[in-house]
Amino acid sequence: MARLQGKVAIITGGAGGIGAATGQLFCEEGASVVLVDSDAEAMASVCADIRSRVSGATVKDLVIDLAVEASAAQIVAATTGAFGRIDVLVNNAGIRSYEPLSEAKSETWQKIFAVNLLSYAYLSREALPLLRAGRGNIVNVSSTHAFNARAGMGQYDVTKAGIVSMTRTLAFEEAKHDVRVNAVCPGAAFTPFHKKRFEAAGRTQAQIDAEAETTCLMRRWATPREIAYPILWLASDEASYVTGSALMADGGRLVI
Fold first, then answer.
1. Which of 157, 158, 162, 209 is nearest to 188 (CA)?
2. CA nearest to 92, candidates 139, 141, 156, 162
3. CB count, 10 Å around CB of 202?
4. Regions of the chain short of the pLDDT cut 70
5. Which of 11, 14, 17, 50 is nearest to 194 (CA)?
6. 77: buried, middle or exposed (CB in 10 Å: 19+, 13-18, 0-12)?
7. Among this protein's residues, is 156 annotated catalytic?
8. Within 13 Å and on the Cβ side, how many CA atoms surround 195?
9. Contact 232, 29 (CB under 8 A)
10. For residue 103, with 0-12 CB atoms within 10 Å meaning exposed, 13-18 middle and 19 or more buried, which class applies?
11. Where are the domains of the chain?
12. What are phi and psi of 156, to 5 degrees?
């Protein structure tokens, strides 16, 4: 049986590697999917690719700026207008900044908080009345760097830690409404973002592969689909007794 048959899911950051992979996997498992991103060209390409790979896929693209609070209500309205319900919310959108905290600018803080943390809060708030009606659930995409900080990306890591804290608080608050809330914390996942960044830096594929050999026990990068599977599991009824968790999908990164 398809694990999400008849379900309606919203996935933010849908034009990126993990978001796109999750959108395809959800469609394969029977869900109707609304992919949300601000990159119209990439969104159109991802949706076309999903439709070509998944026979009968029901996927809708919504191009909108998640940094704007009002976008959350618009996303919920567009989803219910198209499908009449919301069963799963996957908050996955994220941007990065590369500034040491001693040099971090106000505008950078505001931008990264707006996308990486506040969009999760606002969209969860707007979707919760629909999720409560159908015993739905939220899956927030955080990072192993919520727990494993590093130099030079403090703003990003702070938002990822905030996502885990928000996940646990929402799980506590929404248990009485039968809404589950969990987080997935990816490790080194090789997405199109990383591919472009490494290519721009002139790094070879051998150098890219070698980097992952020292970061986790499995000695390799994850594919976006390998992160999509834990998201799928948490979103499905198979995880019906799981809430408030932060599931590590990191190839053993934290035990090094």
1. 209
2. 141
3. 7
4. 1, 254-256
5. 17
6. exposed
7. yes
8. 8
9. yes
10. exposed
11. 8-187+224-250, 189-221
12. -60, -50
The C-alpha atoms of residue 72 and residue 76 are separated, in whole angstroms, by 6
Q: Are 171 and 180 in contact (CB under 8 A)?
A: yes
Domain 8-187+224-250 has CATH 3.40.50.720: yes
Residue found by looking up tokens 């034009």 in the block? 15
Categorise residue 251: left if φ over 0, alpha if ψ from -120 to 50, beta otherwise: left
Give pTM, 2 decimals.
Answer: 0.94
Give 3-37 pLDDT, tens digit per residue: 999 999 999 999 989 999 999 999 999 999 999 99
Q: What is the pLDDT of residue 192?
A: 75
Residue of 98, 120, 122, 156 marked active site: 156
Here the tokens at position 158 are 């702070």
Handedness of CA 35, 39, 42, 44 (dihedral sign): positive
Q: What's the pLDDT at 171?
A: 98
Contact between residue 50 and residue 21 where contact means Cβ atoms under 8 Å apart: no
Structure confidence at residue 254 (pLDDT): 57
CA dist list (Å): 207 to 132, 188, 201, 202, 217: 47, 14, 11, 10, 18
CB 187 within 8 A of CB 250: yes
Q: In what order do the strands lie in the sheet with 88-91?
A: 58-63, 32-37, 8-12, 88-91, 137-141, 180-186, 246-249
pLDDT in tens, 173-212: 999 999 999 999 999 888 777 777 777 778 888 888 888 8
Look at residues 169, 32, 17, 163 and name the one whose alpha carbon lies nearest to residue 88.
Answer: 32
